[in-house]
Amino acid sequence: MLLLKLCILIESRQLGVDIHFSPETMPIQLTSQAYCKMLLHAAKYPNCAVNGLLVAEKTKDRKKDSEPVLCVDCLPLFHGTLALAPMLEVALTLIDTWCKENNYIIAGYYQANERKKDSRPNQVAEKVAARISENFSDAAIVMIDNSRLTMSCFEPIVIIYDHHENKWKSRDVTLDSFEDWSEAQKITSALLEGRSYENLIDFDNHLDDLRNDWTNPMINKSVLDLC
Amino acid sequence: MASVSEMYDVGWEEMRDKLRKWREDNRRNSEQIVDVGEELISEHASKLGDDIWIIYEQVMIAALDCSRDDLALTCLQELRKQFPDSHRVKRLAGMRLEALERYEEANKHYDAILQDDPTNTAARKRKIAILKAQGKSTEAIRELNEYLEQFVGDQEAWHELSELYINEHDYGKAAFCLEELMMTNPHNHLYCEQYAEVKYTQGGLENMELSRKYFAQALRLNNRNMRALFGLYMVSAVHIASSPKVSAKVKKDNIKYAAWAATQINRAYKVSHKLVLAHNIQTSLKPPHLHRAPNVFTAS
Question: How buried is residue A142: exposed, middle or buried, by Cβ count under 10 Å (0-12/13-18/19+)?
Answer without folding.
Answer: buried
